[in-house]
Every structure is written in C-alpha cells, then in structure tokens.
Fold these 2 entries.
Entry 1:
Amino acid sequence: MKSLNLKKLLALVLTVAMSLALLAGCASTAGTTAAPAETTAATPAETTAPVDPLGAQPELTVITRGVPLDPNQKYPEGQSLEDNAYTRMLKEKFNIEIQNEFAASNTTTDYSQKVDLAIASGKIPDYLTNLTYTQYRAIVKAGMAMDISQVWDAYASPLTKEVYASNGALFDSLVKKDGAMYGIPASNPLPDFLSVMWIRQDWMDKLSLKAPTNIEELKALAKAFKDQDPDGNGKADTEGLAGPSIDGKLYQDMKNMNFAYHFDQVFAAFNSFPGIWVKDASGKAVYGSTTAETKAALQELASMYQDGLISQGMLTSKTEETLANNKLGLFFGPWWFPFGDLGNSWKNDTTANWQPYLLPSGTDGIYQAKGGNAAQSFVVISKDAKNPEAIIKMLNIFKAGLKNYVSEEDQTTMGDGAYPMYLTFSLAEGPGMVLKEANNYFDGKATADDVHANVANYDAYITQAFDKILVSKVEPFADRNMSAWDFSGEKANDFGWVWSFGVGLTPYVQGNFNWVNSLSYETTKTMEKRWANLTKLEYETFSKIIVGQASIDEFDTFVSQWNEEGGAQIVEEINAMING
Amino acid sequence: MATATSTIATQPSTKQVIRKSNFDRRNKSDLKHFWIMLSPALVWLVLFQIVPMFGIVMAFQDFNPGAGFFKSEFIGLENFKYMFELRDVRQVLVNTLVIALGKITLNLFVPLIFALMLNEMKQVRLVKFIQTSVYLPHFLSWVILSSIMLQIFGYNGPVNAFVMDLGKEPFSIFQQADLFRGFVISSDVWKNFGFNSIIYLAALAGIDVTLYEAAEIDGATRWGKLWHITLPSIQTTIALLAILSLGSILDAGFDQVYNMYNPLVYSTGDIIDTYVFRAGLQQLDFSFGTAVGLLKSIVSFVLITTGYWVAKKTVGYRIF
C-alpha cells in the first residue's frame, strides 16, 4: 500500500513537471493561433464620439510593459519603480495602472537581452520601449506587433503628431507598410548627428593659432598640440588629433551615430562618406566605404598617423581617459559631450575652454555632415494589448510635460527617466531651439520670460537648459569663452547642461553645414546574413591601413573581396529598394 | 605485514555488507524518503536540463519567435552549411583552436610545476603567503583585468614607455596581430595557475609519507623521489584534469578576448564566440547561434569520450 502511494506521488510529480514543461513549450504557439480573432476584436478605437487625447480611461486599464532600467535612477522617499508619483498620477488621473513584466538595466545589454528573450518566447508585454531597429523588425516579422494606424490617428495629440511629422518621410518609411503602422519611432533631434570639432581654445590661443578651415590647417594644429607643449608642463605628453577608443569606430555609419573620436570630418573633406549609402556619378547607390574618395581619405589618415598627428594608441587604449587627464585638445564628437567625457576634462581642469567648430569640407566653408537615422529606437504595442489607446495617451501626457501632472519636487528628484513611457521624442530641431531662443535674449531681441515661455511651450523637459544657461552666463553675452561663464559653487553641477546647450550647439545654430543622408537605413535580406562578415573585413582593412600595417593598395583588394562576398548583391538590393 | 593489511582491509567491507543488508531489509519504508528528497532535484533536472534540449531544434530551422518551434520553417543543415561557407570560418576556427589548446596545455602543466615547487618548499609561512597571492587574480573578472592589462601593456602604458625610452620601435601588444594570441594565452595562465594548482596540492598532500621514507632509505635523490613517487602518485589526477579540460577545446574564452580585441587583431584574435556574438546575437539570428552552440557541444562530447577512453586504457583511470 505504502509503495503504491509512493508510485502515485512520483507519478504526480513527474506529470506536473512534464505538463509544466509542455505548457512552457506551447505558450508561443497558443499565442499565435489565437491571434487573428483577437486583432479584429481589439480595436475599440473606432468610436464616433470625439476622443480626448489627454482624457482619462473610462474604466481601470491595466497595461504591462518591460522596463529599461537606469541604475542611477533616484526616487523620492517612500517611492519606488512600482509605485511612484508617475504611476500614482497615471492611476488616479487617467485610470491607467502600470505593471512591470520585467526590468533590466538599460546601460548594459541586459535590457536588450530580456527583450530578445521575450521575442524568442513569442510573448511580449503590452508595449516595449527602447527597441533597436533589428528588434522592432523581428517583432513585426513575427506578427507580434499591432497595427496602430487607427488608434494613432484617433488618440495621438496634435503635439505628438507634430513631432512625428517633423521627420515624417523618414518615419513613414520605417514604421508604415501598406497603410498599416507597426511602431512609434523615438524621434531623435537632428543636432545629435552633427558631430563637431571640439578644440581646446585656451591651448590654441596660447600657441597663437586659429581654428582650422581645411585639412592642412588641421594637420598644423594637431602638430602644434603634439609638439609645442600646450599644457605647459614641460613634458611632451600631449596628443594631436584623437583616434577611436578601444571599442570605438573610425567613422559613423547608418547603424552607429552620435559618438566621439571618429574621423568623419576628415573623410568628408575628401567627399567620402564611409558606412552609409551614397549616390555615385551615374546616380546609382553605392556603399560609401568602397569609393575612390574613401581611398584618398584613408591615405591621408595613414600619413597623418605616420607623422604622429593622430594619437598612436588609437583603437587600443581608452581615449576617454586621455581626454579626462587633459592630454588631448582636438577631437570630433557630439554637441552634448560636456555631459560626457568632456565634462570630466573640465572637472579636472576648470580652465579648459573647449569650443566647438566645424571643419569645412570644401572651399565654400560648408561642412558636409553625415546625416543619421532620426529613429534610433522604437516603441511597439503588442497585438494582444487590450487598450492601445491608453499607451498613446501616456505618450501624449509625456509630451505635454510631466511637470504639469506631478509635484515639482517629485519631478526634480526622478527626472523624466522614471516615467513609464519615457523616450527621446523631440521635434527634428530639438535642443537647437534652446540656443536659438537664448541668443535672441542675449542679443536683446526678447525678454527672458518670453524666451522661457517659448521654450516651455516647445519642450517642457529642456526648459531647464535655458534656465541654467541664464544662471551661469555673465557679461559680455556675446562672448562664449570660459571667462564669460560662472561655474562657481553649486553651478558646477550644471556644467553639462550649460556647456552643451549654451556652447556645444553653436555650430548647429550657425548652420554652416549640409546633411548627407544615407539613401537607406534598411537591412536587406543578404545583409542579414552577410553584413557582420563584411563589416569585419571593412574595419580590419581600414584600421590596418591607417596604422600602417597594410599599404593603401590593400583598399582595392578589400573592394573586390567585399563585392565578391555578398556586397555586390546587397548593392543591387539597395538599388532595387530605392527605385522600386 | 601483508596479511595484517588484508585483514584490516576486509573488516570494513564486512561491516559494509551488514549495513547494506540492514538497508535492504528496511528498504520499503526508507526508500520513500529518499525519493521525496530527490524529487525537487529531479523536477529541476527535467525542467531546466532536459526540456531546454528541445531548443536544439532551432539549429535546423529558420527560427521565427512568433511562430515558435512547431511552426518555424525547417531548413535542414542550412545553418551549418552557411557556417562553413563563411570566409572567416577557417581563420576563426584556427584562432579558437590555437588559443584553446595553448590554454589547456599550459593550464595543465604550469600549475603542476608550480604545485611541485611549492611542495618542495619547507617554510610554511612563505608557502601560505605565495599561495594566497597567486590565487587572487582568479577572482577578478576579465572586464576588470583586461582594462588593467590595457593600461599596462597598451600604447600609453609603462611597458611601451620603457621600450620607447630604450629607443626601440613602439610596442603595443593590442596592435600587433602576431603577439595577440600569445598574450591572451599567457595572461589567462597567469590569472588561473594559482587556483588550478589547488587540486594538485591536494593530491600531493595525499601521498603516503612512508613511501618517501622508504625511498630515502633506498638512497633515492630528490629528483628520483619526484620521478618515481610523486608523479606516479598523482598521475590519475593529471589525467582527470586533462580529460575534463578537453571539453573546452572550442572554448577560447569570450570574456577575455571580447574585452581586449580590436579590428587590428581580428586576424589572430577573432574566435568562434566573438564571431557568433557579432554575427548571431547582435543580428538576432537565433538559429545560427544555436547551430554553432550545438557544433561546439558535439565536438566537446566526442573529445571527452575519447579522452576518457584513452585514460582508461593508459593509466587505468575510470569514473564509471
């Protein structure tokens, strides 16, 4: 009798285990089979009554999501990720309750891996933010994304729609297909793609040099910074032009933009645009890395490296540390870099007067700037979401300014990052607006209150940038050098804001540049399989040519090998895509 | 003497027999508790070790997460074919094998030699100190260690500064493809030899001291004792470690290489794992990643089996 019970027990345990396992295995299939019926049922958006984009849900709506965590996120006393002023506000004022299905750090690849797992399991939460284009496409391809075209039309607020429209043509090509809309692109403001030439003005003044306007002058400046001891410590320990860090890249491409220590401006001076799709003389699309212009640019970079004008430790040491230690006075990078490594340089030497310039590509004084994909991350709403309109409303609320919904104290402590629908969602001009408006004030064309109101109306979040500029700016207003700013005491904490918005954006506002956009940001069929292989070949060849481990003739071998191994086919696919 | 030992040896075994028969008698009632205690582990084994095995199916599919295992299209050996079509596959395989073999061999013998040397030392305090200090790097992750390595051996580091002060050409391991593999291997051995020597030291401590005494009476030198007593006594341990490490023949160490390599050393530093990371994971190609993983498992399985068989034949070592 006893042994019979035992057998029963064992059988039970095993059955439970097996059925659990089977359930886990079947979950994905169950989701797909039930799908078609639900998709048609789950579009309650077609109401005849006019909808309020900022109105409360008629009844309590539960929304699930995946959380891209910022490990440095702070919460006011007694609040947390699950329960904070934002979630309370959504529940009390809008009847929206947020449930977090998973949370993972967004500063590492953890969040991305969680998302990949969710995709692989065939079930995603009601919505996901911070998706890469590849992830977005995988979700759409797997049929897990909802067609939100009708919900979007009905519920997106005018301001939300305006943001989308400011980059409309590009966004349409990314998220719309046959009238259906499968995602919301995060809208990156364009200034992010304009990399500037950051120069230590104080070093340059000391050596009585001017900002370079062509490659020859750039070389002269790099040489002077390297040889003439600009930091005045009596040691030859400064570097010329900075090269990429160990995990860095030689140039921006269609997938990776908005980083520092690349050589884009040197390439552009040769009319070369590696890493993106450009038109050749006959009007056909070619890959920028394979052109004769790129070969010429590489040859120049190799000779600069040979002469020691480019940091010799490029690709193998941490350039950010050289910058923070103030052994570097010249590099190409984004306007917001005072928030990053440039801020560390200033912290270690508060006389460091970093000024942004553009290196003109030709004799006309215009910089040919590589344009970037303004949609660098995506939001997807699951096709199983019961209330897609609530998710759109959350975006409307975000756009309307979170300050208007929670107490200022909570807002300052948490920032916008803790809001469940936080994403970069800015008009194309974005932060450029702040400096334009600020200049109006400094030129005496507008009062501070008018400017503040204008900026607040435009983007509530970045209004603080203008306020902080006002606090730190001292006379003379037209002067943007370090001597005309005040960073004493507490103000030092705002260096990133002030120097990025007040100084870093100057080249963008002055506008002496042209966008050179990639003809496509798509991943074609052959690219899916071959691109990793081809980029490896490209990086390896280019890096070796620049540091002198391969002669410039290797470039031609690279081009033919690149074409042979799938490149030629990808060029055809891209051309077909553009023309068809 | 011989009879005495045999009687001592037989006594425990008779005790064991008695215990065993007792156990048999109470079998029915006792067994239940064992099963109950075992069941959580069984459930775990089934759920997390056996069920996920079905995921191997992905290697033969064009896996579509939305469609799942049952509806994804089967493409046979397409993923494996593609793997071997890639221009880099030979280079990547060679890199992996060279680095892994180098690590396996050196990680076997360097700790052995180190353990033998420590064993000969008589100053206990010094031995303890050395032991503790060589264990340390084992507990640091490669993310940290590699940035230390970059600082020391990189272009701006003290090693290069010294070389350049001598008026020689700049020397940066991370820029020179021909030095990179050697550096990866030796830094890994440096990190792990202290920790790996623990097992040898344990084996050495287990050698019967009387053997050495007898050898001394017979007039054996230090080398003679090492050769005729120490090494034969720990040969099964060496064989065990060798067999176990064969399983990692295609494992050149992702963390380490990923944190130290750059395009200049792709030709000697790019290994299977870093390649799959770039080609498979960053492009969300699950099937390809699974196919490579499966191939690695098969190779490891074959090698461990062969190694075990060889060990059984040569040194009489067996686990089962």
Note: Residues 432-504 of chain A form one domain.
Entry 2:
Amino acid sequence: MRENNEDRPAAPAAESASEPDAGTVALDKDAAPGEVLLKVTGLQKHFPIRKGVLQRQVGSVKAVDGIDFDVRSGETLGVVGESGCGKSTMGRLITRLLEPTAGTVEFEGRDITHLGVRGMRPMRRDVQMIFQDPYSSLNPRHTVGAIVSAPFKLQGVTPEGGVKKEVQRLLEVVGLNPEHYNRYPHEFSGGQRQRIGIARALALKPKLVVADEPVSALDVSIQAQVVNLLDDLQQEMGLTYVIIAHDLSVIRHVSDRIAVMYLGKIVELADRKSLYESPMHPYTNALLSAVPVPDPRRRAAKSERILLRGDVPSPIAPPSGCRFHTRCWKATEICKTAEPPLIPLATGHQVACHHPENAEDQAPQDTVLLTAAVEAAEAAGVEVPETAVPDASKAEATEA
Amino acid sequence: MTAPMHDTTTDVDEPAPVAAEATAESKAKKVEGRSLKQIAWNRLKQDKVALAGGIVVVLLVVVSVFAPVLVSLFGHPPNEGNLDQLEDLTNLPKGALGGISGDHLFGVEPNTGRDVFSRIVYGARISMLVAVLAAAVAVVLGTLFGIIAGYFGGWVDAIISRVMDVLLSFPQLLFIIALVSVLPDDLLGLSGSGVRIATLVLVIGLFGWPYIGRIVRGQTLSLREREYVEAARSLGGGSRHILFRELLPNLVAPITVYTTLMIPTNILTEAALSFLGAGVRPPTASWGGMLRDALSVYEHDPMFMVFPGLAIFLTVLAFNLFGDGLRDALDPKGTR
C-alpha cells in the first residue's frame, strides 16, 4: 500500500543518507529506490486578480487547488491534463519557482515550501527543471558553453577536471558535438536545443528532474529521440522524473505512474498499466478515448470516442463538488454537492470519483443523472440506463 | 628498456588529444565568428546610407579627439584674433565668402578675426564631449532604473515610472537656463567653462534617461517572461545575476540604437543652450555660440552662419542615419 511509503519515518532516513559522499555510486547516496523523494500535501496556488487603482484583490485563479501525491526515488511520474489544468504551475511549485499559497512540499523529508532564494540555493542542486520551449529556455546571447556551465558558476561548484571539460562531457552525454562549445543557441535545431537544456539540467547531477512538456515543442520524429535520451539518462544516473505532458502516448512511454489532472486537482493517480487498462475516472476515460490510433485496421475495432461537451470551466470560479460534473455523463446530485476524495480503489490506483468505472460505485444510492449529464451522455455516445434518466417534467422545468 | 620505451610512447600519445583539442578549439572559434554581432555587421555593411552616416560619425570623433593636431596643421589657435584679415572700417573679413583662403580654410570671424575652421574643430570637441557624456549618464541611469522597474514591477515600477513621467514633462530648457544663472563660476574645483560643461552633461543626462529607461523597461517586461530567466532562477541565480547576466546582454541592441539616436538630440540641446547664452561660455568655441555671434552680421557675412549651421546639420543627420541603420541591422525581424 502506498500509505506505508508515505509514512514519516522514511523521510529522515533519506535525509541522513543524502550526506554528500563523493566515493559512493550515485544511487547509494540517494534515497533507496522506492522511497519517497518528494512529498506534496494539500498544495495550492491561487494567482490573485487585482483591479483598480488600489490593486484590490477581486478574485483568484485557482491554478492548483489542493493536490496530494508523492514521488518515489527512481521512478517516473507522468502528469497529464488538458491546457490550463495547472500541470505547469504544479511543476513550478515543486521546483519552487513559484511560492505555494498553501500546502507543503517536502524534499527528502525537508520542508521546502517557503524557503527563500538563499535557502533554496543548495536545494537547487538536487531539483532541476527541463523547460518546454527550447527556443526561449536558452539565452540567445550566451554560448552553449556559458549556458551549460551556468549551474557550476551559480552554485560555486568546480567539477573534477575543470568546468570546460565537464561541460564538453555533458554535451557528449546528451548526444551533441562537444566542439560546439562556443556556438550560440540560434545555430541549433529545436531538438538540439532541448538537448542543451537537458545537459544544463543534469550538470549538477540532480536527484529529481521536473520536465515541463519536454517534447511538446518538438517534431514528432525528434520527440522519440529526446524521450529515449531521457530514458537512458534515467538509467545511467539513477534519476527521478516528474514529466508533465499533454500527450498521452509520450506519457505512456516514459511513466511508471501517472497522475491525471483536471482544473487544479488530481482526479486519478495510478500505475501506468492499471491506468491505461482500467481507467476509473470518466475524465481519464474520455482522455484515453481521444488518443489517435495510428493503425487504420485497429481503428475500427476501437471503441467509440467519448466526446466531451463544452470547455473546461474557468479556474476563477470552479464548479462545486466534483469539478468534472459539468461535463460528466455520469454526474448525479452528489457530484454537484460533495467533492470526491482521492482514495485508493485498487492497489496502486487512486481515484477521485463518486461513480468510477471499472470499480465499485462510491455513491450507489444516487442514481438519477443530472440533466446536463444526460445531454453529455448523448454527446459522448454513452448509453444511459432508463432508471437514471431524471423525470421528464423535472427536466423540462429546469430547461425552461 | 621496455619500461622507458613504454613511457615514451605514452608521453607521445598524451599530447595528441591536446593537439586535437586545440584544432577543435580553432574550429569552434571560426564558428563563433558567426555570432549575432557578425550577422548585424553584415547587414549594416549592405546599408550604404547608414554606412555613410557611420563614416561621418567616426570622422567627427577623430576630429574631436585630434582637434589640437588638426588646428596646428591647418589653422590658427581658436582664440587668436587675426585682425589683419578684417576690413578696417566694417570689421568684416577681407576677400570673398567670409575671407576663405588657403590660410583660413573656412574664413575668419567678423569683429574678432578668429579662425572659423579651428573654432568649428574645437566646437566639435565641445559638442561631442557634452553629447556623449550626457548620453553616457542617461544610458547608465536609464538602463539601471529601466531594468529594475521592468523586472521587479509592482510599487518599484510604479515609483520609477512616475519619476520618468515627471522628468519627461519637465520644461528642460527653462530649467537649465534658470540653473545656469544661479550656479557660481567655481564649483568643486572646476572653473570657467568646466562648470558649465559639467552642468550641461549632468542636466542633459538627467533629463535624457527616462527615454532610455522607458525602452529598457518595456523590453525587460517582455524578456523577464522568457524561460531562460526561470531556468536561471531554478539553478539558484539571484536577482543580480538575472538582471545583469541574463537580461542585460539581450538589451544591448536597443540600448546601443537609442544611444546613437540620443547623441544628436543632445548636440542640438547643447547648441540651443549655447545659442541662448546658457551653454558653454563665450571664449570657448561652440557651434551654438558661433551661430549666435553670426546672427548680428548674417546680412553682411552669411558664410559665418553657414559653417556652424552646416556642422550641426551634418552631425545630427549622420548620427540619425547611422542610428536608423543600426536599428535595422540589429532588429532580428528585419527584412534584410
């Protein structure tokens, strides 16, 4: 059970083991594989909306609104969701590029939620980030050598054999020509630039790498190369990844566990196999049904695509109860009023839904669908049981 | 013998990678040549008008720096009266076109008989000195405050922006005229025209920085959202590193362009102030001062007005053309 891993005693042990010890292999000084490296509890980020001369706060964008998860050493956690669901904000919160509104972020048992720039500096060695846009993540006025050696300069670290030698080694590791040390970013292609970004992130031998859409800006043929490079580096250096993406096939390829986000919440968190084979949350079902099948013969065999109606509601005023109830074809009264907790319904499979699929219904007494849900079901092409349809008169009344 | 033999072979082997590295380095150096600067230079070379402006600017700088040498070669000391060159009755220069001759290339001044060529040359010195130093003051202040306002935003930005608004709406010319009239002749060890020049530099610079400041602030606002700023922060870089190592190199192009466009404005301001009598003090040569002197005699000796006027016109035009060309060359979205 995951709860055992989340227990506090594991954390101090990891911290004591993390004392720098140059002689040992990289994996030895890290938390042992499977131990909790990063633990996030009730994490929230609300961006205030200010208006007027006095900059009065008139509301807030609830980009991340209370999420809990943990990342175990050596694994890859994939985070998926559509644009605007708070994935990137979540990534910037755990790398502490943003200050959380509430909740805690613990790295190796140490609370880093509210550390300042100075306090975070030593932590930066262990937590690194790979950015989405290879065209804006490299300073156009710096040479590749300057970019990749920046981590050493900023952290005051001199690697064995000198900075230049180490930078050239890193360039070689990520598959670039070390002779390109003196070139500028504009002389490289998107894929090469992303490799430079990866070299920079790996320079300090971090334990956790947060990759925010690492391949979404790249050509599909290059995507595979970069994903495989990330995979190889993980095995060589014993890295732990949090990979944020909206591409389900990329996530499926790289992840050990997958978190599905919707409107600032994690709706489902499961092992890869379990998530792809028996998704429980209706939103996950809809997402998975949208994955294109490259083989036309298999396409016919695949079940109908579930079409979701409407747009993602505004994160300024998210829906009450379950945030997905406005678009869900299974939504009932309880979904509107009570927020479903993220609970394990199978081994290694957490889901936040009152009426999950492939699992026992959490609110079996509540069978009457919302009017919107019936429409959603029609649009989605899902059959609705007769008993679940609300009274015709009631439906008309709400429509009128 | 085998052991030493072995040693020598390894010794021979060792330099090889070093040599390979050296060739690799020289290759990389060649590649480095195609930097952004190189691209801009190539574009600038194709812009004939800007290039002509640039050549005039370089000439002006050379003239200002080597003013004493030029004058000793081609003219007379700027404050020496050549009264023998003037008509006895009218005090106007002898000969046609304001007394132009092989000895006095641009003629002589009416009334005083001073050599116009050497006064134009020394006037260029004053104009360039004031304009460039004032631009330097403006660039330092403008870049510093602009980058801070743009990066930190919030109340810092609000205060700096309001100060810039106030300075931009201030009647600069009136302020300087009033200030000059109350300043003592000797100040902080400077005397004579030294005080005036220092005052001009500081005041023109002080009123000039908001122009640069606004541009830098605007650029910083867009640059600070780039991911490389976040990358620097995620590596543990502090504000100072981000401001001066990450952002400043990207601001060099607009700052350079607006500096070259600011210098002619400063030259005009200095000339206007000297014309009004609030600039450089009379015995010291300045283009604006010469124009004022020419005003009383232009009906009889127009050439005395033509030379300083032409000097100001050509200088301002050259700087503006060069600045425009530079902007086109440095703009990555340029069509050329």
Note: DSSP finds 16 helices and twelve strands in chain A.
